[in-house]
Design brief:
The protein is an alpha+beta fold. The relative contact order is 0.12. It folds into two domains: 53 residues, no CATH class; 55 residues, no CATH class. The two termini are 21 Å apart. Strand 2 and strand 3 form a beta hairpin. The chain contains four helices and five strands, in the order βααβββαβα.
Length: 127
Amino acid sequence: MIRLYDNETDFEALKRIHEKFYKDEFSLNEFMRNFLSLFTASNDKNEIISVAGVRPILEVVAVTDKDKTLRERQIALGDEILGAASLVAKVNGYMDLHAFVQEDNWIRVMKNRGFRDCKGRALVFTV
């Protein structure tokens, strides 16, 4: 059975599951923030099997003229695009920006600008 999460009736089960299986991966407060919708899946005995939600994330997407020098591209990313994207994120109440990068050398550049690895491995599902 799937239903909307109810903090009054579901929190203790969520807390128990988190404490037992996920406490070393992320905080419960981190899990609970910024969901568009949060729901539970239960078995026939109404025992919660899973609590899940849909959370919006911000992604920085850029097309870059690779004919320009690496220095020019680094300045454009770090001084211009990242600053503007960070402002947009903050104004809209987001704490993180994501980027999905295909080139190893650009990953290094972005890490030098403050990006870090995400926990887990990024996957996508088309709805």
